[in-house]
Specification:
Order of helices and strands: EHEHEHEHEEHEEHEEHEHEHEHH
CATH class of one domain: Alpha Beta
Structural class: alpha/beta
Shape: globular
Number of strands: 13
Strand content: 15-25%
Strand order of the largest sheet: 3-2-1-4-5-7-11
Radius of gyration: 19 Å
CATH superfamily of one domain: NAD(P)-binding Rossmann-like Domain
CATH topology of one domain: Rossmann fold
Length: about 290
Amino acid sequence: MKLLVFGMGYTARTLLDEWPADMPCEVVVTTRNAEKAAALEQEGLTARIFPGEDLSEDVATASHVLVTAGPSDGRDPVLARLRSAFAGAAGHLDWVGYLSTTGVYGDHGGGWVDETTPLTPSTSRGRARVTAEAEWLALHHDHGLPVHIFRLAGIYGPGRGPFEKVRNGTARRIVKPGQVFSRCHVEDIAQVLLASIRQPNPGAVYNICDDDPAPPQDVIAHAARLLGLPPPPEIPFDAADLGPMAASFYAESKRVRNDRIKRELGVKLRYPDYRAGLAQLLSAEAED
């Protein structure tokens, strides 16, 4: 098995940390700069600079490919350079995973969505993801590339929890009536990807999220309670003075269903809600 990872970031790192011993694998990863590439090489990984180096040979010799790199200037950076390489490699690749976002569904006023829900994104980021998904799936339909699409909710995990901001007083409980978000622990993302690698279903689309969509202010309040601190005061959304990027996240409200990963892949979430996830993060902090 040879795994080629486009974008050696937070999720890919967790996937490699979770990689099972019974699946021996050669790993090639990409990064944008030479300094990080050198550090990855020190870990025993083969690292490429991308964009930069020609990875056609790596695509041609890989058995599995994970694409975590998001669109740049509205275009998928991997397909912009390697579309023909993937079309030519379709016959020998066993699995290709593309990490997308639940932002492709757009705003549903707090209603439920699943993988069959029409894609109606309201942000430029969401529209770029819809385009990228369609391009990857076109390679599946036209050339038989074994593409799997994973739509991720808001990612949290070690180093990406709310505790530091609650402790230093920078956490804000912004309240927008009816606003809910779905989220997922990074370790659950990793276990879904591994389950899919073991049970490929080319052309499949999976939502990855926990069982409990919740208002963001509830998560901050719970983190404060776990720390034994008073929750930050509530701030009405209209008075929050958010920047364009932060405000765009509040433009969409939906609850995301995750039945397919359980039914088709047999996944049992380690952290089925934010309470379980935050408790684990705090426990891990105490052990360090």
